[in-house]
Amino acid sequence: MRAAMSAVLLPALCLTARPARAGLNLLSNEFTATRDEVQAELAKRFPVTRRYGELASVSLHDPQLALDGGANRATLASRLVILSPLLQASSVGGQVAVSSGLRWDAQGLSVRLQDPRAEHLRIDGVTGNDAQILERISASVVQEALQGYPLLTFRPEAFRFGFKVQGITIGADEIRVKFE
Q: E strand or H helix at 89, and its extent?
């Protein structure tokens, strides 16, 4: 009996010693995706571009994902490009970092950004009142563009057994989706 239990438990224990990769763990009822895996998927879907009326077009490039398990928030830093006929140089660049919670979208089977906030915004080569106006416009456009943006999307077959998502937890280097 003891040998039979060892034959079953030893391989299971060895699995937990491997490096973390995206996957479903039926023992803990969790799906885990590492930061690197989510980062790779994000990179495929950028740039993201949104317009602010006829005044400006704001594009986000080269996303860099950071996870803050203590605050249960994700931060997306990105290179920013603003195109506008009102600018002397027609375009300016900069950097933006947006902090966000996460939510489950049952219809889209995805983990999405929830209530993103522009925490840091820098526009290169513009100063004074013009910089303040561009920062306000950019923050507004970026937050709107990233509201509800999918970080993880599941295939329908992942839920073929009727799994229901209970919650999402952000760790130091992973996103965990708890299900029942």
A: none
List the domain boundaries for the chain. 24-179
* Identity at 98, one-letter amino acid code: V
State which amino acid sits at residue 70. G
Cβ 78 vs Cβ 95: under 8 Å: yes
End-to-end CA distance of the chain: 31
Per DSSP, the three-state class of 128 is helix
Q: Judge whether 60 and 80 are in contact, CB under 8 Å.
A: yes
pLDDT tens profile 145-160: 999 999 998 888 877 7
Q: How many Å apart are CA 93 and CA 122, to the nearest integer? A: 9
Segments in the chain below pLDDT 70: 1-28
The CATH architecture one would assign to domain 24-179 is: Super Roll (3.15)
Q: Which amino acid is at 68?
A: D
